[in-house]
């Protein structure tokens, strides 16, 4: 990691969001995992599960673009796990359509295209950014993951993983 990147991360908080959930959170969405751009796991080493564009357009249209954290579960794995989600245009890759890319913080042995993904979005981490290099992007995502893990330890956030949304029909 470059000295500049270390300085930037030292300026970012490790815990973000208020101690209790604030409107509009939590935001619950679910949808079948769709094939994305193929960059998360292959190019970045951080696999993502993409929500369908219809979910993004209908359920997340009023949500600001940026990075969020919360909880997620995927059909076939009944464990509710921490997640980070990028919602936006991914300017480094110059996307032409808005996407919601969820990284569940767990090493899965295979992909889960077509499986039902349930997500509880609990708080905002940071705005979407453009990057000078792929390494800078990866380092920021790794910091986002640390932020999610630490931020979710607070009681108001931890209890959301036990709501009925996650236990019903998955």
TrEMBL record:
It comes from Coemansia brasiliensis. It is an enzyme of class 2 (transferase). One of its GO terms (cellular component) is mitochondrion. Its cofactor is Zn(2+). One of its GO terms (molecular function) is ATP binding. This is Riboflavin kinase. SUPFAM superfamilies: Riboflavin kinase-like (SSF82114). SMART domains: Flavokinase. The lineage of its organism: Eukaryota, Fungi, Fungi incertae sedis, Zoopagomycota, Kickxellomycotina. InterPro entries: Riboflavin_kinase, Riboflavin_kinase_bac/euk, Riboflavin_kinase_dom_sf. Pfam families: Flavokinase. Keywords: ATP-binding, Flavoprotein, FMN, Kinase, Metal-binding, Nucleotide-binding, Transferase, Zinc. Belongs to the flavokinase family. Its EC number is 2.7.1.26. Residues 26-153 form the Riboflavin kinase domain. One of its GO terms (biological process) is FMN biosynthetic process. Catalyzes the phosphorylation of riboflavin (vitamin B2) to form flavin mononucleotide (FMN) coenzyme. Pathway: Cofactor biosynthesis; FMN biosynthesis; FMN from riboflavin (ATP route): step 1/1.
